[in-house]
Specification:
globular; five-stranded antiparallel beta sheet; Immunoglobulin-like; 6% helix; 2 helices; mainly beta; 213 residues
Length: 213
């Protein structure tokens, strides 16, 4: 099981989200989404993420370099995993429920509190609005673009939305980070922590890694 420690950077909540990239680049914890769990999906884009926290939010900066770029969905609560997509799943250590936060390259989000892939409680409009996002792309859908592309996405997810008390964070949570693009010319399913099942399935909290505060 992999683990990482999330640095505390209080200045993150002072800066505009469009300006936190340099701070995350230099002070955050960097890790890579580079595990090919299913050989039939062997394509492997370069995917890194920087993670840090403030008093109230978890900040994640994703960087992707790979073939093709697609954003069919521009509204929240859409199946963004079909697009060029990055994801963060998390759960408390002693709870069965978990949360998924999925983002396509233009920042559209699909998130819910779940018992399984099928059984979920979707976020409200207000909860979606509390997840701040920044990308260089306009929030406008586009068809798949072929060729080599680079893109970044910065997100700030409130601890309260994850069911955590900002003033009393646990020592650790469990989670995983993913990269996928289901409905593209080069579908792939990469993870940070390995997933030992026979077919692509990110909804496996039994294979989450440890994330320490």
């Amino acid at each position: 099981m992999k683990n990482l420690r999330v640095p505390y950077l209080p200045a993150l909540d002072v800066l505009d989200l469009s300006s936190v990239g340099f701070l995350l680049e230099t002070k955050a914890q960097r890790a890579y989404i580079n595990v090919i769990n299913w050989p039939e999906y062997a394509y492997k884009p370069i995917v890194a993420f920087d993670v840090a926290r403030s008093d109230f939010n978890l900040y994640i900066r994703f960087f992707v370099r790979g073939n093709s770029l697609k954003a069919s969905y521009e509204e929240d609560s859409s199946p963004v995993h079909k697009d060029s997509c990055v994801e963060f799943f998390m759960k408390k250590v002693d709870e069965e429920t978990y949360m998924n936060f999925e983002f396509n390259c233009i920042g559209a989000c699909d998130a819910a509190c779940r018992i399984s892939r099928v059984h979920k409680t979707p976020l409200s409009e207000e909860e979606y609005a509390s997840i701040r996002r920044y990308t260089h792309f306009e929030r406008k859908a586009f068809d798949e673009k072929k060729g080599l592309h680079e893109w970044e996405l910065v997100v700030a997810i409130p601890f309260s939305l994850m069911g955590l008390e900002p003033e009393n964070l646990p020592e650790k949570i469990l989670g995983n980070f993913y990269k996928c693009a289901d409905d593209t010319d080069t579908p792939h399913y990469l993870s940070w922590n390995p997933i030992a099942v026979s077919a692509p399935d990110f909804h496996r909290p039994d294979f989450f890694g440890e994330i320490y505060f």
